[in-house]
Design a protein that fits this description.
The protein is of the alpha/beta class. The protein folds into three domains: about 80 residues, Winged helix-like DNA-binding domain superfamily/Winged helix DNA-binding domain (Arc Repressor Mutant, subunit A), CATH 1.10.10; about 140 residues, Alpha-Beta Complex (Aspartate Aminotransferase, domain 1); about 230 residues, 3-Layer(aba) Sandwich (Aspartate Aminotransferase, domain 2), CATH 3.40.640.10. The strands form three sheets. It has an eight-stranded mixed β-sheet, sandwiched between helices.
């Protein structure tokens, strides 16, 4: 107990929570270990039970501890085993908090209303043949008119990850190398690991993959380049047309990458403020472009359009016919309605405007707090911190939940970050920005003073 107490230097809720969080992260407190009761620890520290209770709430909010009522409070056990490895580390907590900025999901209030679209769909789910086209013609026509380059074929699958998984299955073999952005979306790393594919991490800046680093990775002969052209998760970076052309030129001119396939995940297409861009404009025979509707029209629609050369897409469609067959044509009809109905289109346009306004307000407020940030696109912001775990715990003590940056990193070590879902920010962003700044730099007294306003 005495060693446990000695490491708690700051006797505030955030200080107590941060110290215990460090002990859990280091393994000195193991999953299943029982913690002292609130009253016992308060007595040892010379603070009120309410202070320790607030620290416990912060640790619970980030998924580090769990209360079992009269049985006591314990270090949280491992996440459910059915979750992939990176997803286990991202699961966090379902405990209530004042402001949850950890999810990376769209604001449900900004999704277009489904009721009117549902009312216009036929009352019976009828398909004339199991061998019908996997995409309804009217939806195909809309998608072709909006695709970033002339594409041979487009199909509909069950979300962006389904599209990427099926494409990787079709174009890679065990042991192949895949260029990934660093940082990037954690399920990509889990997917590559499960397929036995080697990651080649390449750094990104505010315009996407850095060309010099990309050129070095291409010399290793990757089978695939997996990238997010807009509103990159987690950084919010969007690729420019100039950057995309640079990358395409490098792909064309590097002998070792002559057969490399590009997979693009345009997951935030309709809510991104950046213009659509694709390497398919220069490499149409080697580019597979994915356009997801989860963040713009609703995650539970589970739909994404997958387009590219027929030589790559047709085998995916053929294999899918021996599994799910097709994505519900009723859901496709609903999506088509949402993409063409004036009111639904206006709702999505307004969501894009609001997300942009929230990102701008956060960037400006963080800059006023002394942090060097670039306004992000989409719904996420990537914020450097001195210590990831400490920052998460300190924010949780203030009633704010964010995502840790570690699962998003393709490499071990290096700078530490947190991901903030700016798309879920309240109207008054200044107190939140001050709390973020104080957690990012906990030993900066000036920043910490303003950050206290949120607590």
């Amino acid at each position: 107990m005495q060693n446990f107490i000695d490491e708690i230097e700051q006797r505030t809720p955030a200080g107590i929570a941060a110290a215990i969080g460090r002990q859990i992260a280091s393994g000195r407190l193991a999953p299943g270990d029982r913690l002292p009761t609130v009253r016992v620890l308060a007595g040892e520290l010379g603070v009120s039970p309410a202070t320790v209770s607030h620290a416990w709430q912060a640790l619970s909010a980030v998924g580090l501890i769990v209360s079992r009522g009269r049985g006591g409070t314990f270090v949280q056990d491992a996440a459910p085993k059915w979750l992939p490895a990176r997803s286990q580390s991202m699961i966090g907590s379902s405990a209530p908090t004042r402001l949850d900025l950890s999810r990376g999901t769209p604001d449900p209030l900004l999704l277009p209303a489904l009721g009117p679209a549902l009312s216009r769909v036929a009352q019976r789910a009828v398909t004339p043949s199991y061998q019908d086209l996997p995409i309804i013609p009217e939806l195909l026509e809309v998608l072709r008119s909006e695709w970033p380059y002339a594409v041979e074929t487009i199909t509909i699958v069950d979300g962006a990850l389904d599209a990427i998984s099926r494409t990787l299955d079709a174009v890679t073999r065990f042991g192949d190398r895949v260029i990934v952005e660093n940082p990037s979306f954690p399920p990509f790393f889990d997917l590559l690991d499960q397929l036995g594919l080697e990651r080649l991490p390449v750094a990104i800046d505010e315009h996407g993959i850095i060309p010099n680093d990309f050129a070095r990775a291409l010399k290793l002969g990757p089978a695939v380049v997996l990238l997010q052209p807009r509103a990159q998760n987690p950084t919010g970076a969007s690729m420019t047309a100039q950057r995309a052309e640079q990358l395409a030129r490098l792909l064309r001119s590097t002998p070792a990458s002559a057969e490399t396939i590009v997979i693009e995940d345009d997951h935030s297409a309709d809510i991104s403020i950046a213009p659509v861009v694709s390497l398919g404009l220069w490499l149409p025979r080697r580019t597979v472009h994915v356009r997801s509707f989860s963040k713009s029209h609703g995650p539970d629609l589970r739909m994404a359009a997958l387009g590219g050369p027929a030589a790559l897409i047709d085998p995916i469609v053929s294999r899918r016919m021996l599994g799910p067959g097709w994505t519900s044509r009723m859901l496709q009809t609903i999506l088509h309605d949402l993409l063409t109905n004036g009111e639904s289109m206006a709702q999505v346009s307004e969501a894009r405007r609001i997300y942009f306004a929230r990102q701008r307000a956060l960037a400006e407020a963080l800059t006023d707090c002394g942090l060097d940030v670039v306004q992000a696109d989409g719904i996420n912001t990537w914020l450097p911190v001195q210590n990831e775990r400490d920052a998460m715990v300190r924010l949780a003590a203030s009633g704010i939940r964010v995502a840790g940056g570690s699962p998003f990193s393709a490499t071990e070590g290096g700078p530490e970050f947190i991901r903030v879902t700016a798309g879920a920010l309240p109207d008054d962003v200044i107190p939140v920005a001050e709390a973020l700044a104080a957690a990012a730099h906990p030993f900066d007294s000036a920043v910490h003073a303003v950050g206290a306003r949120w607590s």
